[in-house]
From TrEMBL:
Matching PROSITE patterns: THIOREDOXIN_1 (PS00194), THIOREDOXIN_2 (PS51352)
Keywords: Disulfide bond
CDD domains: TlpA_like_family
One MF term in the entry's GO annotations: oxidoreductase activity
Protein name stated in the entry: Redoxin domain-containing protein
InterPro entries: AhpC/TSA, Thioredoxin-like_sf, Thioredoxin_CS, Thioredoxin_domain, Thioredoxin_ResA/DsbE_sf
């Protein structure tokens, strides 16, 4: 009888251990499912650090169309801040165009080049826009160039050094920021690391 009670206790302990283990595995699966679905936007922090949702904005491109960052969710976004007078910006533009031509569609990427229009050295707003258009045409750029005439986005993103580029994954989360110019290989490698 004592043997049976002892055996019963051992069986109950084993059953309790198995139950605990199974519960832990179910909890882990739920965590993985939640992570793969992504947190709701409201639960994530809006900021400029890795894992944050980038501040949203709506700016106008050179064709007069409005572009809203959050509407690009589902695509990877290379968000680049630049100015026409900036030598490192000039150096990286051909690399960005080469990436855009060769890989952007296949990689599900949109490049948004935000011109810090308020920082352009021309006197009038129209002259600044003309300078940006001349720059675009001179470099034969086909990716979207957005104008930031009030420095709203530049200020929100705390852009001090240009170029500054944020890499945003398809869930709308910042994964990396780079200050300074990029070449084609660096751009490709950084985008490939997003998802």
């Amino acid at each position: 009888m004592k043997k049976n009670i002892g055996l019963l206790m051992v069986v109950l302990l084993i059953a309790a251990m198995i139950g605990t283990y199974v519960k832990q595995q179910i909890d882990k699966e739920r965590e993985i499912e939640s992570a793969s679905l992504g947190k709701e936007v409201e639960e994530r922090t809006v900021g400029l650090n890795k894992g944050d949702i980038p501040p949203d904005f709506t700016l106008t491109n050179l064709d007069g169309e409005e572009v809203t960052l959050s509407e690009l969710r589902g695509k990877k976004v290379v968000l680049n801040f630049w100015a026409t007078w900036c030598p490192p910006c000039k150096a990286e533009m051909p690399h960005m165009q080469n990436y855009y031509d060769q890989y952007a569609k296949e990689d599900n990427v949109e490049i948004l080049a935000v011109n810090l229009t308020s920082a352009e050295r021309d006197v009038t707003a129209d002259a600044k826009i003309d300078t940006v258009m001349t720059f675009r045409d001179g470099f034969e750029l086909t990716f979207p160039i957005l104008l930031d005439p009030e420095n709203a986005a530049g200020s929100e993103y705390q852009v001090i050094t240009i170029p500054t580029t944020y890499f945003i994954d398809s869930t709308g989360t910042i994964q990396q920021a780079i200050e300074g110019p990029m070449n084609l290989e660096m751009l490709k490698n950084t985008v490939n690391a997003l998802d």
